[in-house]
Batch of 3 targets.
Target 1
Amino acid sequence: MSVDTTIPATPDDVVAIFRRVLQRDDVTADSDFFQLGGDSLIATRVLSAVARGHGVELTFEEFLAEPTPAGLAGRITGAV
């Protein structure tokens, strides 16, 4: 029997991750990660935090398609 360890995410959950990895307080649910100064290396920190906190491993391509907290939260919740 497998145990489901995935946890849905809200945009606020992902905002908190963005704020931590980007070291910025001005992140909102609609903020674009890359416009805030994020790059592919820092994006891996976001993806790792999502995997640890929500049990969902998103790809970098998924991150590129949805570079906002609201978009990523939707991807995480859709994978749950």
Target 2
Amino acid sequence: MSTPEPSESPASPPRKGPLSFLSGALTSGLLAWVCLGLSQRVVRWYSLHPPQYSKAFAQSIGTAMKTLIVGMSFLATFTFAFVALGLTLVFIRSLLPVREAEPS
């Protein structure tokens, strides 16, 4: 019994082009801008409405939740901003000519 050999080798997926990097950078930059506006609104809301509870335990939970919400909103902002920066750099690099590796 012989095993059938594949007639063609599987094709490699097509490479991403500069337009793909540019669209990703613009999308991520837009999301970073939206998240920055959301983060500013969250900080403004919590500065105008600080958690005030009569019990110390409830006050510490309220403060922890406020810190968590503000921190996560800014984490999303900076994550999208760094992805946009990275994709912008990859976009610029994709526009530069490719140097062939010299044999040693």
Target 3
Amino acid sequence: MVFKLVVIAVLLAIVASLFSGLVFLYRDRGQGTRAVRALTVRIGLSIMLFLLLLVAFRLGWLPAVR
């Protein structure tokens, strides 16, 4: 149950970072670096979630679907 909450929290953080990147892109009109930083955070969170799911599967926290 805790693992599901962690995955959901990371997914929400990814969506929030994506949305903040959109807002910064609109407000800065492409002149600032805040949008790039927000999207870099999103990519980092996505990679972290992927690795977390791989490790959880390897440790047996996620059952294999047959």
